[in-house]
Structures are given as C-alpha cells and as structure tokens.
Specification:
445 residues, alpha+beta, Outer membrane efflux proteins (OEP), four-stranded antiparallel beta sheet, two-stranded antiparallel sheet, 67% helix, elongated
Length: 445
C-alpha cells in the first residue's frame, strides 16, 4: 500500500516537473546547422568544389618532370641444323629494364593549362561560396514559410471561431425573431468558407513543413516564432546604387563567371599553341642481359645512358588545331556574354532586394496601423450589431478584414527579413553571422 502511494506521489511529481519545463523548439541557427550537415544539394556543391580544387595540381603537373620505368623478360629457344647435322640448341633468357625522364623546357600549351587550373580553382571556390549563401536563403525561406503557414492557419481558425460564434448568435436571434433568415444564411456561408480555408491552410502547412524537412534532413519539430514587436532594420548603406555596384563586381555568381571567362580566353591561347614547337630534356638509363655465344650460359650485358634535348615542331595536323581554335574563340564569346548576363542579373537582384527591404518596412508600418484600425472597426461593428445599427454581414466583413490584415502583416514581415538576407547575398556578404543577428528576433511559441 505504501509502495503504491509512493509511486503515485512520484508520478505526480514527475508530471508536475514535466509540465513546468519549457517546451522545446528549434531556432533558426539550429535548423541552419542541421541543414549544413544534411542538405544533399549543399553536399553535392562541396563535393564539386573538392573536385574543382584538383584542377590546380593537374595544371601544375604538366610543368613537372615525368618519370616512367619499364622492364621485360623473354625466353628464347633456337634450334640450328647445318647440312642435315643437328647442332646443340641454344636456349636462353633475356632480361632488361629502363628508366626514362622527360622535363618540359618550353611547352606553351602546358604553361597556359597551368594558368587555367588556378582559375578553375577560383571558380570552384566562388561556386561553393554561392552554394553556401543559397543554403542560408533556402533555410530561411523554408523556415519563414512554415511560420507564415502557421500564422495563416491560426488566423483562419480564429476567424472560423469568431464566425461560429456569430453564426450561433444569428441562429438564436432568428429563433426569437429579432433578425431575418438572411443573417443566419450569411453567417453559415462564411462559416462554410472558413472551413474550406482551414483545410487549405492545414494542407499548405504540411507542404511547407515537408519542404523544410527535405533541406534539414529531419523533422525540426516546433519552430521559434517571430516576436510580435521585432524591430526590422533598414539597409545600410541606405543608397541603392552602392549595393548595385557591389553586386555587379563582387557577387559570387559574377566571380565564378569571371573566372570561367578567363579560362575560356586562355583556352584560345592554349589551342593556338598547338602550332608552337616544344622543347624537352630527355634522359634514360637502361640495362639488358641476354644469352650469347656458342657455349650455353654465355651472357651479353648491355648498359645505356642517354641525356639530351628533344625539339618537336608541329607541321600539319589535318586542320585540327585551327578548328579547335575557332571553337575556343566561339566559347570565349559565349562566356563573355554569360559574364555580362551575370552582372545584369546581380544588379537586378540587388535592386529588387533593396526595394524589398525598403518597401517591406513601409508595408509593415502600414499594416501595423491597419490592424489596429481593423480591430477597432470590428469592435464598433459588433457594438452596432447589438444595438441594431449594423447587420450581421457588417460584422462578418469586419472579422474577415482583421484576418486578412493579420495574414498580410505576417507575410510582409517575413518577406522583409528574407529581402534583407537576399540583399547581402547579392553582394556576396551573406554568412552565418547574419543569421545570428536575426535569430534573437524569434522566441519560443
């Protein structure tokens, strides 16, 4: 009996402790760090960067000496017949080996290829940096989408609950004869619409949660929500042209394409060098041992050492070099056009993001004021309905306006935050520290 009482008290104590413990929720930084480890798109970008870094050693290898060794062993069987008289067979084994060294002194193709390798490493690093920024933006977008979907669902449910109360009141008023059937029907219509909106909002939330799960690699659970009074800051500097100029010159997409254009230009030089002579230092050492002579077992040992210069002058290759040069020139022109397109896209992205922040802040302020007005209008319509100067549809419209304003305000705040991150990404300065700065704007639900 005492054991049962003790167990019961322990269960109550544990229950009280659990209920008193704060609920766990994931913040923006935790979700981002999970994505760093689990996002397959970013993992592929890191692997591609590792592959790209190998272009440097590969280019350098063409300027370094090459050494190769070879060996052989052969068994020879000889049978001699002189004037129908058989002679002793002379069978013997031959062995040999050689070591060869080649050191380029002048090979313009390989020298240009070395420069291309260094540029390809730069391109790989810039591409990885852009992938890192894209990961931050994708995480933030998915995180904000989940929060907005929850805000939307909460607003829809609140609106549905208010309409349900209004519907119940309209039905009672109709029963006592104080309102017409129209009021009840209008409330029922709004309630049915709210039910449909709730179903759509639930579906949208599920999709947004799964989208975040694809990036993070697991269910993040409950997320920290944006504080109601979170302060959103304007861009610094507050001059759009400075952001645009920076985007055109230092954004990672432009840097990667700039490196690609330089590689294409060097490819023209490399292919033209197919007509140039090459000069190499060559050296070799070899040794051969073979059976020799009349007496079985006689051996002939040969050693050779060679060092010298080898000059190769291409004369005619069937037009291959000229064709490859024309191809490289066309590729260079295409790459130059791609670079200009990258600069224009970067400038456009910077403009859009800058205006997104500036206009977003203004929209948030306007919607804050609109929400206060909408709530006041709802209260006035409810009071007017009670005293008979407003009809049921007026109250329903006012409730709908409050819901729409709350939804639009939440979207404006999330869009402004995302535009701030996109603006920094446009100039290649977006990093983990930027998430650290906005993470305190969120709180546990």
């Amino acid at each position: 009996m005492r054991l049962k009482q003790s167990a019961s008290r322990l269960s109550l104590l544990l229950g009280a402790l659990i209920s008193a413990s704060p609920a766990f929720s994931a913040d923006l930084m935790q979700v981002y760090r999970d994505a760093l480890n689990n996002d397959q798109q970013y993992a592929a970008a890191r692997a591609n960067a590792e592959a790209g870094r190998e272009k440097g050693p590969q280019g350098l290898s063409g300027l370094l000496p090459t050494i190769d060794a070879s060996g052989n062993t052969r068994w020879t069987e000889n049978k001699y017949v002189v004037k129908n008289i058989s002679q002793p067979d002379k069978n013997f084994n031959s062995n040999g080996y050689s070591v060869n060294l080649t050191q380029p002194l002048f090979n313009w193709q390989k020298f240009v290829q070395y420069g291309q390798g260094k540029l390809q490493v730069v391109q790989a690093e810039a591409t990885l940096a852009q992938a890192s920024q894209d990961l931050i933006l994708r995480v933030a977008q998915a995180y904000f989408d989940v929060l907005y979907a929850k805000e939307n669902l909460n607003a829809v449910r609140s609106n549905k609950q208010a309409i349900a109360q209004q519907l119940e009141q309209a039905k009672k008023s109709f029963e006592v004869g104080t309102v017409t059937i129209t009021d009840s029907q209008e409330a029922q219509s709004r309630f049915d619409l709210a039910v449909a909106q709730e179903i759509a909002a639930e579906s949208d939330l599920e999709v947004k949660q799964y989208t975040l799960r694809v990036i993070v690699g697991k269910d993040s659970g409950e997320l920290n929500r944006l504080k109601p009074q979170a302060q959103l800051n304007p861009p610094q500097p507050a001059i759009m042209d400075k952001w645009v100029d920076a985007a055109e010159n230092v954004s990672f997409t432009v840097q990667a394409q700039q490196a690609a254009t330089e590689v294409a230009a060097k490819e023209v030089e490399r292919t033209r060098a197919g007509h140039y002579p090459t000069v190499e230092v060559i050296g070799s050492y070899g040794k051969n041992i073979a059976g020799f002579g009349i007496v079985p077992g006689d051996l002939l040992e040969t050693k050779s050492s060679i060092i010298g210069l080898q000059v190769t002058i291409p004369i005619f290759q069937g037009g291959y070099v000229n064709s490859k040069t024309r191809e490289a020139v066309a590729n260079r022109t295409a790459s130059e056009s791609a670079l200009e397109s990258a600069r224009r896209s970067a400038a456009l992205g910077a403009r859009q993001s800058f205006l997104g922040v500036v206009n977003g802040l203004a929209q948030v302020r306007a919607l804050d004021a609109a929400l206060i007005s909408s709530i006041s209008a709802l209260e006035s319509n409810k009071l007017g309905y009670e005293v008979g100067v407003r009809i049921n549809i007026d109250v329903l419209n006012a409730e709908q306006q409050v819901y729409v304003t709350k939804r639009d305000l939440a979207k404006a705040r999330f869009d402004t935050l995302l535009s701030q991150l996109k603006l920094k990404a446009a100039v290649g300065s977006l990093g983990e520290d930027d998430l650290q700065q906005i993470n305190p704007l969120f709180e546990m639900p």
